[in-house]
Amino acid sequence: MAKWTAKHEAPEPLEGPVVATVTGGTILWFALFVLQLPFYGWFADRGLLWWVWCCAAGGVLGLIGIRYVRGRDAALKRHAEERAARDGA
């Protein structure tokens, strides 16, 4: 089997408000978790408790993601400042 190679170059990654996007998603996961808590018994009766805990896990993983993207954003800004200082000097 031949190794697959791309026929064209990959496009540049899209940059946007990554921190705001991840924060919004995390808030949404926690909101869904809290909204499902009053119906915990209903989910338990039907064997659907994983819905509740999936939302909780999404919120916790979102907190990790917020920390990651904030650090990434700070590193990108730091790198841009260093490059500007090097090119300007």
Layout: helices, strands, pairs:
Blueprint: H1 18-36, H2 40-45, H3 49-88
Helix pairs in contact: 1-3
Describe this structure in words.
There is one protein chain. The protein has 89 residues and is mainly alpha-helical. It contains three helices and no strands. The chain has helices spanning 18-36, 40-45, 49-88. The longest helix is centred in the last third of the chain and has 40 residues, at 49-88. The protein is elongated.
Helix fraction by DSSP (H/I, runs of at least 4): over 70%
Distance between the termini: 52 Å
Biggest beta sheet attributes: none
Tell the overall outline: elongated
Order of helices and strands: HHH
Secondary-structure class: mainly alpha
Strand percentage: under 5%
Mean pLDDT: 92
Radius of gyration: 21 Å
Number of helices: 3
Number of strand elements: 0
Low-confidence stretches: none
Quick summary of this structure?
By secondary structure, the protein is mostly helical. It is built from 3 helices and no strands.
Give descriptors for this structure:
89 residues; 73% helix
